[in-house]
Design a protein that fits this description.
The protein is built from no helices and eleven strands. It is mainly β and 127 residues long. A hairpin with a 6-residue loop joins strand 5 (46-51) and strand 6 (58-60).
Length: 127
């Protein structure tokens, strides 16, 4: 099993920044592709960003490209999401997720493919 714990959420004004962290334990972190998803009130859980197990490739939702940066530090078993120029539409609970590497395929947008999920952290962007 892999345990995932998100942190760093909070309240920020539009245009501001937040940094999220996802700490992993229980298995070899570098064996997993990782991703961030978010779920706004009344909406389905949606893909935000993903990163391959060694950090060589990243993928982003179009609306966050240029504003969000996903990264990971395998030595620290931690994944990050740096969020800049936040908008009210970014308000959601943010979840980290882990998917066992299935190279050469990374099903990064497909929720059923992910093996483990964190409990989520609330991000609220005020206008």
């Amino acid at each position: 099993q892999v345990q995932l714990v998100e942190s760093g959420g909070g309240l920020v004004q539009a245009g501001g920044s937040l940094s999220l962290s996802c700490a992993a334990s229980g298995r070899t972190f570098s064996d997993y592709n990782m991703a961030w998803f978010r779920q706004a009130p009344g909406k389905e859980r949606a893909f935000v960003a993903a990163i391959t197990r060694l950090g060589s490739s990243t993928y982003y939702l179009d609306s966050v490209k240029g504003r969000f940066t996903i990264s990971r530090d395998n030595a620290k078993n931690t994944m990050y999401l740096q969020m800049n120029t936040l908008e009210p539409e970014d308000t959601a609970v943010y979840y980290c997720a882990a998917q066992r590497d299935t190279y050469p395929y990374f099903y990064y947008t497909q929720i059923p493919r992910y093996d483990f999920w964190g409990q989520g952290t609330q991000v609220t962007v005020s206008s």
